[in-house]
Each structure stands twice: as structure tokens, then as C-alpha cells.
Protein: Alpha 1,4-glycosyltransferase domain-containing protein
Amino acid sequence: MEYLGIVKLKSNSFKLNKLKWQINLNLKFSNFQKIILIVSIILAIKYYNGPAENVYFKQRWLDGKTLKEASSNKLLKPWHQSLTSKNIFFHETSLIEDGIIRLNARQACAIESAALTNPNHNIFVMFASQVGFRNTSELPIIDALLSYPNINLNYLNVTKYAENTPLENWIKTDALFRSKYVAVHTADVLRLLSLFKYGGSHIDLDIVVMQSLDSQGAQNFAGAEEHDSVNNAFIHLTGESGHKIAEKLVGEIKNNFNGRDWAHNGPRALTRVLSKICGTKDVKKMTENDICENFKVLPIEKCYNITWFENRMFFEEKHLERTLDRLMDSLMVHIWNSQNAKIPLTKNDNVAYIHLARKYCPKTLKACDKF
Structure:
């Protein structure tokens, strides 16, 4: 017997006044299959909650104390208007519901180190939440950062930030806001959008910059973490060639985003794209040979000479000399904060991280008792 099932479902939840699901099936069904079909539709109705909202904008602030939105910052020029693109981006994607601007000491150290070693670059610290100065107490860390003339603090609306980019419609599917790792994956997306729109560098908030980025003498580069991985904790893309690479990276997010895998949209996405550009999956070959068109893959010792599983070397006195020796020629160092955020430090501890802080983020160190 031929069964034709036409089901139309309407939902008014989450402002969806005319959501219609129509299933046209011109197939032969057994009674069991009909039951399965009906149950599936009932479950879909029960558990479909409409598109996920922008989780960072559940609370909107209109009290005049909010940071300026990124789009209003006149220092941000479209990539084609500033081919040198001396921009350095940091993205803070924690969900900050009280609207109070805050950064911890290690985050501030990352930002200050970039400003200190790159005084000719504009530093943009972008908050995904609508934060501002709503705290009546003192903010010594923020004051320390704002003493640098090249540091800018802004907030952005993730959905709006994607407008006029290849991710404009993708953002509206809400795959990002339904991610199992929203903060991590939002940071993965925002760094690529910033580089696509403006060019420059993205740096994670658990990196200490030790040299000027200009010292590399290359338009586009990132660092190898392992022999099969290029990490996206730091990426530098400028000029037309950098924009083309950024476009490929954005396309990788659009076509292959996975909200269930922590690293899929970050270092693995960058490695996948570079494998195609370089014609090899062997990251060691990428670092040794000029095979990646206009992209340079820096050797492991330049950015990630202390690996994630060695991260305690930054925090234990017994490893002090060995750690500093291994970092002698590094452009920057990744602290791997996700592995050690709960390890307490004071400004007087005789460990490698505090030694780095004394040299590369002295104002932050002075403003904080604990790290």
C-alpha cells in the first residue's frame, strides 16, 4: 500500500512565527516504519527550541559605561587599505554576564608583552561580551594596560562582526552558539574573522611575546607545535596573499565546523588548510622547505619549544634554568593556561614564568600580587 505523509509543523517559540517542516514521502511504509516516523516527528517538536541566541548578548547594557564597539574604532582599517596591517588581536570569549571588564594577570601579561615588544603595532583586545567599567573598585590591571598608548579595548557582537564576510549566513545557523565548547570555538572563529577583515596577527591570551613580530621578515606565518600540527594560538596574515589564506581558513570553518571537537576548528583546521597549500601533511617538511606559497611555518622552537605536556616547567623552580635556556631563541612562548590555570603564583616566586613576566610584562607584575 502506498502511503503519502505530509506533515506541517508550526512553532512560535523564539520568534519563529512561521516555521514549517514539511515532509513529503512517496514511499512504501510498513506499520512499524509509520510509527517510527510519527515518533521522530513528535520528538523533533518536543526538543527543537528554535535557533540558539547569541549567548554573549543575553544581557545588553545601555548605561553609557560600555566599551566602544570594535566597528567604531577608526584605527581598524580594512585589510586592502593598510597592506602592512600592523594589528595584533586578542579575543576574550569568556561569558561575562555582569558586564564588568576584567582580565586576569596572565591574560594581561600576554597583552602587555605584545605591546611592549611591538610598539609600532596597534593592539586590539576584543571582548565577545558587552563589557565596560561598571566596577566601583580600582582596576589596577586594566590601568596598567591602558598606560600603553597602543593598547585598545573594545567589545564586539559576534553576529554583527561576521557581516559582509563568508560567515555572515553561517553565523545565523547558530552552529557556533550550540557548540559544546562555545568559548573556545568562538575564539577560533573570531581570530579568523579579524584576520580576514583587517589583517595582522592573532595571539592567544596565554602567550608571552618575546620579540617583535617584524623580526620574522615574512608576510604570513604561524608556528609548528608538533610534526603533525601547526597551532593557531598565533597566526600572522597580511597583504593580499594573507587575505587569500584567511579566506581559505574562513571557508574551512564554514564548510567543516564541528562543535563537538575541541581542536577541530582551531589547530586542526589550520593544519588541514596548510596541508593543501603546502602539498604535504608533514609539518616538519613545511618548516624546512619553501613549499607553502606565501606562508612560512616557523619551527617548533620558535613558539612552542615548551610543549603542553611540559607546561609545569614554567611554574616549578627546579626547572627554572632549563626552561629559560630552551626559550633563548623563541619569538614567543605558549604558557598553556588551560593546563595550569589553577597553579598559584606570586610575583616573588623564583620560577620561569615570573622571570618572563619581569622582563615582558613589568607593569602587570607590579599591579598584581598573585599570578
Notes: The two ends are 72 Å apart (CA to CA). Confidence is low (pLDDT under 50) at residues 1-26. The chain has 14 helices and eleven strands. The CA atoms of residues 42 and 174 lie 23 Å apart.
